[in-house]
Design brief:
Blueprint (H helix, E strand, L loop, with lengths): L2 E8 L5 H9 L2 E8 L2 E10 L4 H4 L6 E6 L2 E12 L6 E8 L6 E10 L3 H4 L3 E4 L3 E6 L8 E4 L8 E3 L8 E3 L6 E6 L2 H4 L5
Parallel strand pairs: 1-4, 2-6, 7-10
Antiparallel strand pairs: 1-3, 2-3, 4-5, 5-6, 7-9, 8-13, 9-12, 11-13
């Protein structure tokens, strides 16, 4: 899995006035917690560094560099302004190489479905799967081959095989379905 570096600077003042000053300067207030960090570390980072982390369908592990202290982490939550959609706050969870982490991995569709060739529509039911494993064994994406899906058929989580990680999403959840368009529904019975 890919790793991004986020450079941060500690912040001691946690009141709302200080947070507004940080945001006005083009920075994002952040916090990191988890194994190996006895107390939460509050810091801020330039907003531009989050572009390749948040505004992409890919997932990344994060190497936080907070004033020279390197912390391996994953983005746990990002909070946005309800109107302007500006990033307001980011929560990171630290991890260690010897303990499994829970993470959401995107789904990548491969192959061409005979159902789509007949006029069906590819319908995503879920675009990310919750998985658990060591950081070094987590893939960049989970591949789903739709080449056997005909009209009205679905690909479920239970049909996936995982190597080096565990899929936590329920096996009964559909990942994709080949929808039957209205124009073809009446012809099916003919």
């Amino acid at each position: 899995m890919k790793t991004l570096e986020i450079i941060g600077f500690k912040r001691a003042n946690l009141d709302s006035a200080a947070l507004n000053e940080i945001r006005d300067a083009g920075n994002v207030p952040c916090v990191v917690y988890g194994p190996g960090i006895p107390d939460q570390v509050h810091f801020y980072s330039p907003a531009i560094l989050f572009r390749n982390l948040i505004y992409t369908p890919e997932v990344h592990l994060v190497e936080l560099n907070i004033e020279g202290r390197i912390i391996k982490a994953v983005l746990k939550e990002a909070q946005f302004h309800p109107v302007s959609e500006v990033l307001l706050h980011a929560d990171f969870m630290a991890y260690t190489d010897d303990k499994a982490i829970k993470f959401e991995i995107p789904v990548k569709i491969e192959g061409s479905s005979p159902g789509i060739a007949k006029g069906g529509k590819l319908e995503f039911k879920t675009r990310k799967l919750k998985v658990k494993g060591l950081a070094k064994t987590l893939p960049d994406y989970v591949s789903v081959d739709i080449s056997s899906l005909d009209l009205g058929k679905s690909f479920k989580v239970g049909e996936l095989t995982s190597q080096g990680f565990e899929i936590l999403t329920s096996p009964n959840v559909s990942i994709v379905t080949i929808g039957i368009p209205r124009a073809l529904r009446g012809k099916k019975g003919e």
